[in-house]
Structures are given as structure tokens and as C-alpha cells.
Amino acid sequence: MQYREDVPLVSHLNKWFGFDKFKGHQEAIIRNLLQGRDTFVLMPTGGGKSLCYQLPALILSGTAIVVSPLIALMKNQVDRLRASCGDDRVTHFLNSSLNKKEIAAVKEDVLSGITKLLYVAPETLNKEENILFLQQAKISFYAIDEAHCISEWGHDFRPEYRRIREFVEKIGTAPLIALTATATPKVQDDIQKNLGMSEAVVFRSSFNRPNLFYSVRPKADATKQIAKYIKDNPGKSGIIYCISRNRVEQLANILQLNGIRALPYHAGLDTKTRTYNQDAFLQEECDVIVATIAFGMGIDKPDVRYVIHYDMPKSLEGYYQETGRAGRDGLEGHCIAFYSEKDVQRLGHFFLSKKLPEREIGKQLLLDTIYYAQGGNCRRQMLLQYFGEQYDEHNCEHCDNCLSEQPHFDGKEYLLQLLRLLQEIGEGFRADYLISLLRGVKSQDSDIYSHADLALFGAQKDETEFFLGSIVRQALLHGFLQKDIQQYGLLYLTDKGRAFLESPYQISLVRDHDYKQEDQDEDAIIPSEGMGVDSMLFQMLKNLTHDEAKRHKVQPFVIFQDTSLEEMTIHYPITLEELQNISGVSASKAKRYGQPFVDLIRQYVEENDIDRPSDFVMKVSPSRSQQKITLIHSIDRKMDFEELASILHLEMGELLTEIESLVINSGLKLNIDYYIDEQVDEDVLEEIYDYFQYDAESLDLPAACEALKDLDVDEDIIRLVRIKYCSEKGN
Questions:
Q1: Cβ distance 138 to 113 under 8 Å?
Q2: pTM for the whole thing?
Q3: Nearest of 605, 604, 566, 611 to residue 585 by alpha carbon
Q4: What is the CB neighbour count within 10 angstroms for residue 86?
Q5: CB-based contact 510:453 (threshold 8 Å)
Q6: Percent of the chain with pLDDT over 90
């Protein structure tokens, strides 16, 4: 069907998608494309970009080629479009996930004119057989989704994207529409030049997402904070971004251990697992996805209520797009980022291996991220200014800085000295150099240019690099300076800056956040120091332990060990779920033995009018490393202990210590019968087991060895049986 202007576009919209009206610039964008003009679309996540090329493709004759960067994104888009159209052949994708038979079927549908949209990766277009195939098809237009991938200045640069224009000319020219949710003016210019569409009509929507709440927190106890936040928001969907695959796995594991429906997602997982985890999230079979940046691009889940950055991203564009996956339905969305100087240093080291231009680009993008995290100004204002958009509201009321405003100071003299210095040295220098001159730090450049002889050299020698960096950031934010990002961040005065030098005036600047706390060992979270044991409650719990031991016909230490009882007197758990957060208390142990204990604690809290600590007590992973996760999985697969010790580079005694830590200290249930049956005679096993069942007063190993010395068995045998006993009776 060819486009007819006498048929209202809204009729097509209703027919194919069931909507009665367009959002924002959608109608104008679609009409522009239908009229054969190149189109550039800047629209925030959730604004309805995909409809801007899907509806024209359904209206026009021929097939629209949609270039998309990820297989997961293609699958999601195709599935949704097929559901709307009611015909699976209307849209296809062509990528490496298809077999030969499926590829042949796709090509047949395209050449017959049935398929209206064909999703491809740029790498697919790089194959000669695909070029030859598409030359035979009638192409209605090309849609370049996630167009920021074209630019080296974008946050997700893909080299093959820069060849798209070359592929288009080989296949056959047709109108182009490029779409992205995030692009600075520099990136936008780069995209248009590369695609040869500098004359395209540009549709730019506001980057402001008023329903999103932005906050940055120091990265201390980040895992604990995240788990508590999720527990405080039960049933809500969220995405947590980490910089590494290893951290994704660790964090997902800890959240699962704390009763949170979380799954990992990263490129290291096999395709089947990635697809399963993504679908589980979309179908609400899990609440949280812990992911690298590989997850979320183009995923249309409107009710993501929070996006958490465990690690700060490498650019503000990446941060903006990832946070944009929250609240796409217009309802609440919380964007929480954790910041530490350690992480910034790691990201900086990441760029050292890059070629010089890419390294300098990366440094500038990272610097903008640091400015955002440390900045005390309105976070919405800082984000929008980065994308070239002014936000003039005094208080957005939807970020941490606006809700708890940072201290202000008169910045007139600091700004004057900064701007005068730049004026004197002739502009076109970077921020770090200006800061070093103001602090009186000599360098090779200062000697070459004789800048150490200037009156302003050392004018701020008592101020820190951090503080003066804040002055530069706010000079940019308020428009006194501009940065040429193409020249790696060189600074220039603006007309406003020159006017300020002519007629200075008082200006209130904000003190930035100075995050001094470093992130802690996330796998070693313990109750806060200084919180004393409630001795009266401890004795009551101790007595209850003895009573319950008699009732269950086990030793008291099998019920709960003293370390667990002490922790109960600190955190006062009053539900079985809270009890599971106590170290050494597994879910099954809480279910088997816990109810009398939480009942006693609840009564004690009420009678003594105790304010329970609000701190969330988080159950940590029984593994402090991937090594212990491997250990658990290997025992589940009944691996021989000698082989397991060899794989983990442990002596046998060290291996048993690791297993004891899991079973005795963390309350994990492990079945090691397969190994014990090979190593221990049945009579010896029974005698050692009976000792712990009936005679032992504790799990003390020396006491057990002394009591069982007549058996003349190795200490490791006693340790094995002790592990078996604790696992079966206590966990």
C-alpha cells in the first residue's frame, strides 16, 4: 500500500497499534519520512521512537531496513510488532541466531513484499551475500536505531555503524531516519555527517524526564544499601548496572540469598541463559536484573521503577540512557548511582590501553561523569546542560541535591581569577592546566609558556584540586565558559564570561560533594561495631535454645550457635524473614527452629519498649569469592574432594575449612554423603555421629578428637562427620 495523504495518519495508528493519538513529535516525524525526507530524531527513552519508523514502514510499499545493534533488541521489537500486526511474516530479523532454513524463509518473505520491516545488525550488512539479496528487494527507507553508536564521542561506539552509509549506497539509496535517545550536539553532528544526512529535518524532544528522581550516594556498604532498598520496595521491577561480569554474578548471588528474585545478564552467559533471564524479567518472573550495559537497549518494559548503578558509567550519555529505562510509563522512577574515587581510577586505567585520540575522548567523557557525581547543583540541571538544554527551574524537587540543598558560598573572586587567567594565557587550555596554575604547580608547559611568571600563578595555592575543579564545573554550568569537546576539552570564554570580567558581580556557588568514604569489602558485611549485645535477651534466648534442643532431641548448638544468638540481640528479628538475615541462619533452619525465637524477641521488644535498629541486616553470600561458588556447585555434582581441592589449589585441610565455613558458620545445607561413604567405615561413622548427637557440649574439634581418640581415626574423618551432622540436624 502506498501512502495517501487523504487518509488521516491517526487512522493508520489506530489500525496497527490501537492508539487514538500520537505522542509529542511522532506525527510530524512520520509525515516527514512519508514525504521522502531524511529525518533525525532525538527523543528520550520512553518517548516512542520505534513507532516513528514502524508505522511508516507498515504504510509504505516495500521493506524498511532497520539497523539495530543487538540481537536481544531485535527480538524484542519483532515480537511486539508481530503481536500488534497479527502476522509473523510482516516483520523479521536477519542475524547470526538464524539457521539456513530460517534465513531462506526470511528472504522469501522480503522478496515477495510481505515483510514490511527487516531488522539487521550492521555486521549483517557487511556480508556480500546479504548485500546481493537486498539489492533485489524494494527498500522503502532505512532506519538507523540507536544512532549514537556511530559516533566515537557516543557512549556505545560500534565501528561497523560508521560503514552504514557505504552499505546503503551499495544496496540502493532511499530516505534515512536516524534515531537516538541520547546525543550531545557534538554526537548529533558526527552522526549526520557520517550518514550523509546533514540536510535532514531534525526533531529534538526535551531530554527532561520529570518523573525520574536522581541521586548519587557514596559507595560505602553499597550491596547492603541496594538489598535494603529492594526489600523496602517489594514487587517492583528494577535494573542494577555493574561494570564487570564478575560483579554482576556476585551481586545477583547475594540478592538471591536474601530472598530477592534477581537474575544476572551479561555477554559472558550463553545465549539460552541470556534469553531466559531477559524473558523472565519482561514476564515478571523475576523482579531484578543485575546486568552489564549489554542489557536494556530497546527493551520495552514500561514499569521499571528503579535503575541502580552499582558502578558509575564511563559517560553521562551512557548514564542518561540507562536511567531512561526507569519510569517509561510516566510514573515514578528512581535513579540511584554509587560513587567512589576507586571506581573512577579503575575507569581511568581502562583508557590507558587505548590509542591516543580514543584515550583523550574517554578522559573527557569520564570527567563529565565525575562532575555530575560530585556536583552539588540540581542534577537535572547538570544532565540537561550536558545535552545542550537549559533548565531554569530553581528547584526540581526530584533529586537529592534539591531536596537537601548543598552549602553555598560567594564565588565572585574565584570565578574572576579563573576567567582572568584564561583570558591572560590566551584561551584554548584544559581545566587541569588552569587548576595547576592557580595552585602554583609548575610543569613543563608552564615553563615553556612562562606562565609561572603570571601574577595569578599560585593565587589559590591553599585550595584543593577538588575545590578548584568545582569552580571550573560551575563556570561551565552557568555559561561563563564553554568547552570544545572536539579538541579534548579545551576551554574558551563565552560572551557571558567576558561580560562578567567587565562588570563582576556576586554569584552564589555550591559546595560539591566530597566523597571520602571508600567502598568496603562487600562480601564481609557484619553487624555495626559498637552495637552491644543485650545480655538479658541473650540469656533468655540461650535458655530457649536448651528447651528447643530437648524438644527436637538434638544438641543446643545444632539449633543456633552463640554467635547467631548474639546477633539476634543486636538486631531483634521479629519475623522468620528477618531471622534469615542473621548469620548462620538459613531459610530451612529458620523455618525448622525459628518461630519460638522470633516470638520471644517480639514479646521482649514490646514489653521493654525497644526501638529496633532500622539498619537492614543483610545475609551475605556464603562465598567470599567465586571459589566458594565453585565449591558449592562441585559438591552438588558429587565431585571427588581430592580433585576439587586440586582445582581450587587447596590442601585437603583447607578445603574442609571452606566447607565448614559454609555449613557450620553460614547454615548452608550440603550433602557430602557420597564422599563420606567412600572414606569412612559405617561403624566409625555411626560412633562419631552419635558423639555429636548425644555427648558433645559444643562443636569444638579438639574436644571431639580427645573424646574419640580410641577410634584411632584421622582428624579429617571427624571433621567430615561433624560437617554431615551439622548439615543434617542444623541446616
A1: yes
A2: 0.65
A3: 566
A4: 8
A5: no
A6: 38
